[in-house]
Amino acid sequence: MVLVAVGRVPYTEGLGLKEAGVALDNRGRVQTDAHLATSVPGIYAIGDVIAGPMLAHKAEDEGVAVAEIIAGQAGHVNYDVIPGVVYTTPEVAAVGKTEEELKQAGVAYTVGKFPFTANGRSKVNQTTEGLVKILADAKTDRVLGVHIVGREAGEMIHEAAVLMEFGGSAEDLARTCHAHPTRSEAIKEAALGVAKRSIHM
Fold this sequence. Notes:
Oligomer: single chain
Mean pLDDT: 95
Distance between the termini: 33 Å
Radius of gyration: 20 Å
Shape: elongated
């Protein structure tokens, strides 16, 4: 099987945006400010027509944020903690920064990795393809990115998203008791690996 991805573009033609005076960027996306407001007062934009990942769950959070803003509340979307999942076999899931992004930004980081070949549940189920990788700030230990390749990666990534939403560290994750035998233990082991303390390696 071959997967070919040619990219995606915002579908903004025919919406009357130009006639309404709504500004677009050079890629045809609706320009918004930090509160999802467009260049026209009273018009907001969310989802695939604005910058950012074209993901349904990102659009949903933006919709909630806009509704809250209109109601006079403090609607907000944390774009640094939006998980992405590729539903292939094996699955690929990620949240936060990649090593390339951290290098480019000049952020010192540490890496913890744990392969599913060393995970008890994965061995029993003969689904050992893949690994968990955690990127943590070298100074603060705050988790900056988590990447998982393997069975049920799309389900497992949310543990990392919750941790990151609350500014958690690799040590926080490493000291959280995980049920045994579960695939999620690989996340704990990768967190331990940030400090070179993985137990089952």
